[in-house]
Amino acid sequence: QVRLVESGGGLVQAGDSLRLSCAVSMNMFAFKTMAWYRQAPGKQRELVARITMGSVTDYDDTVEGRFTISRDNARKMVFLQMNSLKPEDTAVYYCNSYPQSSFWGQGTQVTVSS
């Protein structure tokens, strides 16, 4: 059974930090590159960051240097540390494999006020 549970979002001010967490079922997590995506109101879902099983990372240019993706393979968790948040980071954040699967969790809302 595929299961993705995101948490850690909230309402913060510009410049603040948040840490998102995602619990992943084993059959998705094993041997998979995992990623964080986000969807802002009225926009398409976009890739934010990805991490391989060996922890090689890659970031969208808009978050490079501010966000850090990590994973705990033993706990089957993926994290996204978000620093220096900007209002344009406001979105619902989702984790999924990369390339994305058809299974999506409920996401976690991040709202950054100016």
- Report the biggest beta sheet as strand number plus sense, adding barrel if it closes: 6 strands, mixed
Question: What would the principal axes of the Cα set say about the shape?
Answer: globular
State the strand order across the main sheet.
2-10-9-4-5-6
* DSSP strand content: over 45%
| Approximate helicity band | under 10%
What does this molecule look like?
Strand 7 and strand 8 (77-82) form a beta hairpin. The chain is mainly beta and 114 residues long. The chain has a 6-stranded mixed β-sheet with strand order 2-10-9-4-5-6, with no helix packed on it. It has a 4-stranded antiparallel β-sheet with strand order 1-3-8-7. 4% of the residues lie in helices and 50% in strands.
Summarize the structure.
The protein is mainly β. The chain has one helix at 26-29; strands at residues 4-7, 10-13, 18-24, 33-39, 46-51, 57-59, 67-72, 77-82, 91-98, 108-113.
Write the topology of this structure:
Blueprint: E1 4-7, E2 10-13, E3 18-24, H1 26-29, E4 33-39, E5 46-51, E6 57-59, E7 67-72, E8 77-82, E9 91-98, E10 108-113
Parallel strand pairs: 2-10
Antiparallel strand pairs: 1-3, 3-8, 4-5, 4-9, 5-6, 7-8, 9-10
